[in-house]
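Just wondering, can you check both lines?
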Amino acid sequence: MKFTYHPLTSVMIAVAVWLSLLPLGALIERDAFVVQSLPVLVASAAVGLILALLRAPRLLTLIAQLVAIVGMLVWRGLSLAGPGDPFDALALLTSDGVEAIRNQPPPLSAVPGVVWLVLLLASVLTIVLELLVNGLEQPGWAIAPLALSFTMSALIVRQDLPWYQVLPVLGGYLAVLLASGGFGGATGRASRSGAFNASRTATGLAIAAIGVIAALVIAPLIPLGPKQPWNNSGQDGPIQLSDPTVRLNQDLRRPDDVPVLNYRASTDEPVYLRTVALANLTSDGARLMPMRLSRFGLGSASNQPGVDVKVEVEMADIPSEYLPAPFAPRGFSADGTWSYDPETLSIVAAGPDRIDQTRGLEYSVESVLPDPTKEQVEAAGAGSGLDAVVTEIPQGLSPEVTQLTGEVVGDAQTAGQKALAIQSYLRSDQFTYSLGAPGSSSSNAINAFLLEDRSGYCIHFAAAMITMSRIEGIPARMAVGFTPGERQEDGSYEVTAHDAHAWPELYLDGLGWVPFEPTPAFDGPPEYVDPADPGSASPTPEPTAPTSEQPAATPTPTPTPSPTPSADPSQGGGRAVSTGIGVGALVLLLLALPALARLVQRGLRLRGGQEPERAADGAWDEVRATFRDYGLSWPGGSPGPASRAAADQLMPQGAAALAVIAQTVERSRFSREGSDAGQLAAQVKALRTSVSRAATSGARFRAALLPTSLFGAARRSADGPPDGALSDN
């Protein structure tokens, strides 16, 4: 197959790369590559198409494509990473993507780091294919880079990929071969080009079909052994988080209390420090949901309303998988490698020594504390738009629990009123706090707690309120962390293991996730939690339990809270810069559209491989368009007389080029032998060069950016071409 440098080759390469990315759907959410890869691919295809139509040297085209790809890649990377040193930002973005691949099970969510790696892959594949196809003229080797994404998915995913996943790769490869082999111009004048191309296409499809069938028949017969043997050992792979409720039970039942951390809040008030939220309440108890961890975008991950607070924390020599932080965190500064879960805003250790990252760690967190009044809670309805898991009622629940919930909420109308009624019921003297209850939040444990024993500790009160809230249609989940601790003489607060706690968070319309405190041994947010009754809330004689003397959990809002500074790189300036760049690029693109359209039009008129008559008509149309663009008059008439009449406006070199063009066009139209149109493109280029040199700077500017010949097309189409005007050929 003879190689043909066709203008559509770069477009087909971009399409082939996009198709080759589709098998990544087994590894990554499709949003990360189906849409995100388009800017890089479109930039390469557009530059390649335009320069090919202009007959630019192939090396210049490759360099221009490389510049366009790198420019688009860097712009998208910096917009994903936010402000800061560009090299550090892109390096951090890369490490974020690598950490996501190492620590998360597929399919990976489209977090910024993963999107960046996909953009890198698409860019590298495009550059390699351009070098192979248009640089080295070896399109047959394009199958190697095109098959890379499919090969990666096949190796990483434990299940065998469906056979049809390879079809996009083969389709892209076939498109590249057809484009680089020519669509008909390489068969010679005496050949039947249609039959030749049909035969060639049929042969290619037959070979591809044979390959697919052979793979489907032979592959199952080859004993390949288990997939991914490297995953049988080692530390790489999805992060395995331990059950936080187990740690909670262990901390509360410690015979000897031990310090966990000290903190200071910018409001000088005590705060609850949350580690994780459990959204999945099953018949076996509250459970973690799979997390999609990211290192970017924490500041914009939630629009939770509330009051700003910043805490400075000093951890004891305590290992932890989570970073204790007030809910809802907007930014943090801590040594080590940390990621966060966009759904729960839990901050999780992700480094190689992640369990020990908190030992002696000093860090700061900026958060927005929920701060509704009791009246706001009472007026709020149930929130919506969340994962259905936060409204699911666990199986195995007794029908009597549903009946009890209806009696408790009584005539309450809003979700907020129902939540307050449930909270007041659980904090009443009908329930007692005791660590002697079984350490479980299963359906059986909830049944026993609400209907029989009515005695338990925080995990039972939280699970009971979550269950009753979900029965009433209110989204709810369990937060696990620490109560505020005890104030020290220096104004800081000390949190110990016995301060470990669980409490419910309910999602209310307009208020977001609101913490409640149904456990009577603790004082919660003062605006909407009834003060604990010391007599009824005291624990039964069991292991040492927290007392109601602990300070309130939610700080009183300052009169004029100032905006919280965010450590997240995707906030503020990063978004403004990205938006500014995007708007500027759009404006430049709109301004350049007439010039680009004129370039494409010229390239199509003067492209090679046309029949002589068509090539002559296109060249003559381009001559008349050139005169119109530079503000020169066109006399009209047949080519010979028109060229002689127009020659007075040209320099000698331009007049000579116009005369040769006119002679070639007349021969192609009126001579039986026809004419050789092979030099028409070069002659038109010589004419344009002469006209441009003789024109003023203003005329050259208008001809380049506001070509008059384009804007007269609609009028000519409606009224017919006036004498000397452009035709619509």
The chain has 24 helices and 16 strands. The first strand starts at residue 259 and ends at 265.
